[in-house]
């Protein structure tokens, strides 16, 4: 898939389905339940928005921000080592990134396959 390939509704649906439940929304306030409720229009509208971002290159400012928070581990919470930091990111940006990542993986896989078969005799495939 090249840079000019539109973001398909099926790509958005697949990315939404792969989201893990119980995720806290990022700065854009889009929550998991809103995306999973999936009316027929949700993936269509979202694919249009993502396509515009892809084409124009203007990433929404809430997507560029993350809220850092801490989660307790087991043990004495007075010990700094018993806490771990996480960054809350926009779920919509995660969908966008998942689509881009899948495209990159497919492109790289095709390049690697071609490189590995370049020196094989033509009659082998």
TrEMBL record:
This is Endonuclease-reverse transcriptase. Keywords: Endonuclease, Hydrolase, Nuclease. The keyword Hydrolase applies. GO terms for molecular function: endonuclease activity.
